[in-house]
């Protein structure tokens, strides 16, 4: 397969836990000839298929025309602790992702794959799940041919910062995850999430929202 017939992917959130796993997998995926990363800072990538675009997310009009290709993968996210305020978190978890999705849809990108969160609900009284739900709702109206929204449970992977409570939760989740009632809350490794994202990019037109149990099944297509 020559490069002209290979897919062009765009990734938002390529430095995060899921994003890094996705980038590594796409580098080895022969179906992709170009991998474009949007970033607020320079990134050290030497792979010939990877291009890094340093952008100011607060000025989408300065870069929105370049987001063209076959699929946009969106896995950006932060915590209230890192962001510093609800307003700052809203920008990262909603505004930046929505504006990038809108640019991609306007430029004719047919497929969109979004990493959301378990419990995402636009009417939730919990700030985090509400903004995730708002984004899930709104990107479906942008005109993509295929939209896949993945709502993983607790993410398992090699984090730069290790949080004791989170580690305990992951271990407990694995123990209980085999029980039917707890299957939705079973921790999912970022490698599995990335495989599910790649498989989602190949699915037919329409909208699909998947929780963790379905993501394990979808990921097997790219295992």
Structure characteristics:
7 helices; two-stranded parallel ribbon; seven-stranded parallel sheet; alpha/beta; 20% strand; 223 residues
Description of the structure:
This protein is of the alpha/beta class. The protein has helices at 17-27, 80-83, 86-106, 127-139, 164-176, 190-200, 212-219, and strands at 7-12, 32-39, 50-54, 71-74, 111-115, 146-151, 155-156, 188-189, 206-211. The protein is built from seven helices and nine strands. The strands form two sheets. It has a seven-stranded parallel sheet with strand order 3-2-1-4-5-6-9, with helices on both faces. The model has no long low-confidence stretch (mean pLDDT 90).
Sheet with the most strands?
Answer: 7 strands, parallel
Mean pLDDT across all residues, rounded?
90
Fraction of residues in H or I helices:
25-40%
From the spread of the alpha carbons, the general shape counts as: globular
Rg computed from alpha carbons, rounded to a whole number of angstroms: 17 Å
Count the beta strands. 9
Tally of contiguous helical segments: 7
What series of H and E elements makes up the topology? EHEEEHHEHEEHEHEH
Strand content: 15-25%
Lateral strand order in the biggest sheet: 3-2-1-4-5-6-9
pLDDT below 50 for ≥5 consecutive residues: which ranges?
none
Our measurement of the CA-to-CA distance between the termini, rounded to an integer number of angstroms, reads: 21 Å
Give the assembly state of these chains: single chain
Structure classification? alpha/beta
């Amino acid at each position: 397969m020559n490069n002209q017939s290979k897919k062009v992917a765009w990734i938002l959130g390529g430095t995060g836990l899921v994003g890094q796993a996705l980038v590594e997998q796409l580098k080895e995926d022969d179906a992709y000839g170009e991998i474009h990363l949007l970033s607020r800072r320079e990134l050290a990538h030497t792979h010939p298929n990877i291009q890094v675009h340093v952008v100011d997310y607060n000025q989408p009009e300065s870069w929105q025309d370049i987001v063209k290709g076959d699929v946009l993968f969106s896995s950006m996210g932060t915590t209230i602790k890192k962001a510093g305020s609800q307003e700052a978190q809203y920008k990262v978890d909603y505004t930046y992702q929505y504006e990038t999705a809108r640019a991609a849809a306007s430029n004719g990108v047919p497929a969109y794959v979004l990493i959301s969160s378990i419990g995402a609900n636009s009417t939730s009284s919990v700030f985090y799940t509400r903004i995730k739900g708002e984004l899930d709702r709104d990107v479906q109206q942008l005109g993509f041919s295929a939209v896949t929204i993945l709502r993983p449970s607790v993410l398992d992977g090699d984090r730069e910062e290790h949080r004791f409570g989170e580690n305990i939760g992951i271990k407990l989740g694995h123990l209980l995850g085999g029980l039917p009632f707890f299957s939705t809350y079973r921790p999912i490794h970022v490698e599995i999430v990335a495989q599910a994202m790649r498989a989602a990019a190949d699915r037919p037109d329409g909208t699909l929202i998947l929780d963790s149990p379905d993501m394990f099944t979808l990921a097997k297509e790219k295992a």
